[in-house]
Amino acid sequence: MENEKLQNLRDKIDKIDKEILKLLNDRAKLAIKIAEIKKTQGLSFYDPVREKNIINKILKLNKGPFSDEVIKTLFREILSATLALQESQKISYLGPEGTFTHLAAIKYFGSFAQFEPEDNIKNIFESVEKGITKFGVVPIENSNEGTVTYTLDMFMQYEVKIAGEIIIPITHNLLSLTGEKEKIKKIYSHPHARAQCREWLRKNMPDIPVYDVASTAEAARQASLDEDVAAIASEFAANIYGLKFVAKHIEDYKNNYTRFFILGKTFPNKTGSDKTSIMFSLQDKPGTLYNALKPFKDSGLNLTKIESRPAKMRKWEYIFFVDFMGHIEDEKVRKTLEEVKNYCIELVHLGSYPMFK
Fold this sequence. Notes:
It is a single chain. The protein is α/β, with parallel strands linked by helices. The chain folds into four domains: 2-86, Chorismate Mutase Domain, subunit A (Up-down Bundle); 90-170 and 257-263, Periplasmic binding protein-like II (D-Maltodextrin-Binding Protein, domain 2, 3-Layer(aba) Sandwich), CATH 3.40.190.10; 178-247, 3-Layer(aba) Sandwich (D-Maltodextrin-Binding Protein, domain 2); 267-354, ACT domain (Alpha-Beta Plaits, 2-Layer Sandwich). It has helices at residues 2-41, 48-61, 68-86, 100-109, 121-129, 149-154, 191-196, 198-204, 216-223, 235-241, 288-299, 331-341, and strands at residues 90-94, 114-118, 135-142, 146-147, 161-169, 173-176, 186-189, 210-212, 229-233, 244-247, 257-264, 274-282, 303-310, 318-325, 344-354. The strands form three sheets. Strands 1, 2, 3, 4, 5 and 11 form a six-stranded mixed beta sheet that branches. α4 (100-109) links the parallel β1 and β2 (114-118). It is globular and about 85 Å long. The protein starts with a helix and ends with a strand. The model has no long low-confidence stretch (mean pLDDT 92).
């Protein structure tokens, strides 16, 4: 009786699977027709605003038992696979394979995009500016370690736009080929990852030397070549490089997140929940920074980040980077920036993009 009941349930699942397959292919056929229309009209195949709206509508309909995060991941992959049928999306990211930037790129674009690793952040900016890749993914700030200043500096050299953002939790693990703590003679780590695990290393591996490498993925790659070597890296890297866990979640502070920018040649239309990024330089006079920031207060625009970097062209002059809530298409934003320009030597709109949720 139990076996018959089990078989009946499995038969129902098989029927649903067939229907899912049919619906997925029906959806793909419609997407291909849409792509043909976009091509004749010269429209972009990738529409992040449309994708965000699709996922938000689906999440509102979700009654479980799947969590919203699971549903979001499933539909992210459906959208990624559908876009791959329309146009190959080449995405450059800070490599090698298995970095947190690689993970952020997959979470944003889905695993069906074509990912191109780059050795450094500068190459990503250059690749996007020259149109070698459609988009690029770069780290901009970590909740514990602060701003990635090199990324900010690149905006002074390249004409690219910020087309989006994504924030992912950063968890570090101690990984090795064997998973045996006793065999470890040295550890490889990116300097930021080591700093985020300093106390754990002091308490648990006080006599084991730690060597800096260019990325957590490179640390994992090194560990995959030698049983005596361990790496501080992600679970994502462990899967890619065939490593086992020596210890999980060894970061000293658990609320550790990194924000990444999506670089492109253009930025998306407004969604109603957007951020705008600008950079500007000021005259070296008392009160100019106050005057440049006061219009934001007067208009009620919420600043979410302000950072200064040396201008590098002239000593003791600085470029200011500002993020605030709103989109350049908003009338209030346009009027505010017009007023801010009155106090600036130069003001550059870096992009307006959907706020990550």
